[in-house]
Design brief:
The structure holds 2 protein chains of 2 kinds. Chain A is of the alpha+beta class. Chain A has helices at about 1-25, 70, 75-80, 100-115, 130-150, 175-180; strands spanning about 85-90, 120-125, 160-165, 185-190. Chain A has 6 helices and 4 strands; from the N terminus they run H-H-H-E-H-E-H-E-H-E. Chain B is mainly beta. Classes of the chains: A alpha+beta, B mainly beta.
Chain lengths: ~190, ~450
């Protein structure tokens, strides 16, 4: 029953957002011919009339996640569309790059906001290394990410690591893009 | 000892007839490991040699004579001859005359009516002639090697057992024949283990679609595949115990890599690490009492050695970079491994006590060292060569490296056969990851697996 109630709430929320979006769509900005501007300049007759105002385009604002989006989603749904972003690595490297630090800072912010959240960091490698060595490399990638999170104040006991080496590639391709995509620390939420 | 084998021994005592015919112990059913057959004879005959010095002895294996006409027996007669030919051919110790060249030579109606003239005409130095007979316990297979010029049996064996797996009789005969004729330890009875996704089950508990990998065992030639693990998880890097009764491997059964031992005939499992830390790539020491492995329990992948039961764990390496992929020297007093301490993965050797570290590879990327059995003092490994890897062999004595594969797909994870004459490895040359075997000189490449993706082979003793 509680699940149903929750589901209903989410549904209502979604419908509301949907209706709001429909309203915007239903009223596109329309240009109408305007009568010539009335002369209202009484002070300075030499001043030219004001230019016509541009037609304002309504700004599209992506719907903000409701405050309890993370709280209300199932763990599987969270992991399908994770609030925690993956961290990518250079070839044969487990060093966290500057971009990577920003990713980890954002992930740390999420973890701090939801102190109940527990995660496992999976270390992954591209197919160009050996299966054996990649298991160690993946573990170092996961540990690098974990150590950085811990340095940002995330308790170490909330973060587990596991290396899958090159066993579970995210991209089945065999090119630079696929390899780049597969050299990662992937964040899996295990409890919230 | 089973009642059947006691019976067999009694029967065997009555059966010794020809001077060279000795009776082997009954091969147990294929699922049980085999004890080496006892050889209750002191008769020593000179080994069969070829006609001309320096040439290979030429051997023919015609179809065995089925002494009963039921389907099981005739099938066994057909299978044993073909598999024996394949087994003997695999070691390349004899020149095996192609079997289709002597289909017209009539089978000997009895063992003392061998058409020697016809075999001589074919250029055979030796011919293996045998019979299969249905008996109460299954089948009795009698095999003899005849010297065509001397017109005499130079070697004979009789095997009795189940008819369920006739290939086993050929494997026994091949190993016995190599032993008696060449003092060579054949590999016909050995097995391969490897990791495979062929059962196509998905890992549970992940939102991504991930295939499990389970540990499998096959005969050395790929026949009789059997699944060992049923974890529905990743089960990788299997490694045989020296007695061939256990396989130690890396399992993600609990979500993280840990070391499991499956006792494959007892159907039991051991967890030596008792769940301490993450542990992977276990390898049994040559005496089976210890396991070397990689672990990140102290915060970085390092090498450790523990007793088989998990006691007395010692750390072997201490370096901020990766140390992994151990392999034991044949006498167990050294360990070769891979380290990234100079920036790229390279092969190093260290004493089993942690002393005497030295680097032995000069590649752009080298991994999976695997130490050959004596008398060869070599280490095979995977070396990066362009986009993929090739198998190379380093002679530790001379420091010379030779290449076994040459860029057909990627070639990784070499494992020696127990006699050091062959290697098993993973290759993508046929598309997916498959297990292949190759001889130590790079010849005789054979594809062993075809179903699913198969990787990280290891060869039983």
């Amino acid at each position: 029953m509680r699940r149903n109630a929750k589901a209903l709430m989410v549904l209502v929320l979604l419908l509301t957002i949907g209706v709001a979006a429909c309203k915007d769509k239903a009223k596109p900005p329309v240009a109408r011919p305007m009568p010539p501007p009335m002369v209202t300049n009484t002070g300075d007759p030499t001043r030219p009339p004001d230019p016509p105002r541009p037609v304002a385009e309504p700004v599209i604002v992506p719907p903000m996640p409701a405050e309890d989006t993370i709280g209300s989603k199932s763990i599987d749904d969270l992991n399908r569309d994770s609030p925690l972003r993956p961290l990518f690595f250079e070839l044969d490297s487990s060093d966290v790059s500057t971009d990577g630090q920003q990713v980890l800072q954002a992930n740390a912010a999420v973890l701090k906001k939801y102190p109940g959240m527990q995660i496992t960091i999976e270390g992954h490698c591209d197919e160009r290394g050996t299966a054996e060595y990649n298991l160690a490399l993946g573990e170092r990638r996961a540990l690098s990410a974990k150590n950085y999170l811990v340095s940002l104040g995330i308790p170490a006991d909330k973060v587990k690591t596991v290396s899958y080496g090159k066993e579970f590639p995210f991209d089945a391709g065999h090119d630079d893009n696929a390899w780049k995509n597969n050299r990662r620390a992937h964040f899996v939420i295990t409890a919230k | 000892m089973t009642r059947a084998s006691v019976l067999l021994k009694l029967l065997a005592a009555l059966m010794v007839s020809a001077s060279a015919l000795v009776v082997a112990q009954q091969p147990q059913p294929p699922q049980e490991p085999q004890q080496p057959p006892k050889q209750p004879t002191t008769v020593e005959l000179p080994p069969l040699v070829g006609d001309a010095p320096g040439t290979q002895t030429r051997i023919a294996v015609p179809e065995l004579l089925a002494l009963s006409s039921d389907r099981e027996t005739t099938e066994a007669a057909r299978v044993v001859a073909q598999v024996l030919w394949d087994d003997l051919n695999f070691e390349r110790e004899f020149y095996m005359i192609p079997r289709d060249t002597y289909k017209t030579i009539p089978a000997a109606p009895t063992l003392d009516m061998v058409p020697y003239e016809r075999w001589r005409e074919l250029g055979a130095d030796g011919v293996v002639i045998g019979t299969v007979q249905k008996v109460a316990t299954g089948v009795r297979v009698e095999l003899r090697l005849y010297d065509v010029r001397a017109r005499a049996s130079v070697f004979g064996r009789e095997y009795t057992g189940s008819a369920a797996n006739p290939r086993l009789y050929a494997h026994y005969m091949s190993d016995d024949l190599h032993e008696s004729q060449r003092r060579l330890r054949g590999v016909a009875k050995t097995k391969l283990t490897f990791s495979s996704d062929r059962n196509r089950e998905a890992v549970v508990g992940t939102v991504e679609k991930r295939d499990v990998k389970e540990v499998y065992v096959t005969d050395y030639d790929g026949a009789n595949p059997r699944r060992i693990t049923i974890n529905r998880a990743l089960n990788v890097f299997p490694n045989w115990s020296p007695d061939g009764r256990s396989i130690v491997y890396t399992s993600y059964r609990t979500g993280v890599p840990d070391i499991l031992i499956s006792n494959i005939y007892a159907g039991t499992m051991e967890i030596p690490t008792k769940g301490s830390g993450q542990n992977w790539l276990p390898v049994f020491s040559p005496d089976g009492t210890k396991i070397a492995f990689t672990s990140s329990r102290d915060g970085n992948p390092e090498l450790y050695v523990m007793n088989r039961d998990g006691s007395d764990t010692r750390r072997l390496t201490n370096n901020p970079e990766i140390d992994t992929t151990p392999t034991w020297s044949p006498n167990g007093n050294q360990i070769a491994f891979t380290s990234g301490r100079t920036g790229t993965p390279q092969i190093y050797v260290v004493g089993a006590d942690g002393a005497g570290l030295r680097r032995i590879s000069q590649e752009s990327y080298a991994d999976r060292p695997t130490w050959s059995p004596a008398p060869y003092n070599e280490i095979a490994f995977s070396a990066r060569s362009g986009p993929g890897f090739d198998i190379k062999v380093l002679n530790i004595g001379t420091g010379e490296t030779r290449q076994i594969t040459f860029g057909e797909g990627t070639n990784e994870s070499p494992a020696w056969s127990p006699n050091g004459r062959h290697l098993a490895f993973m290759s993508t040359r046929a598309g997916k990851s498959q297990i292949f075997t190759v001889d130590r000189d790079g010849r005789n490449i054979r594809q062993i697996t075809r179903d699913g993706n198969n990787q990280t082979p290891n060869w039983s003793q």
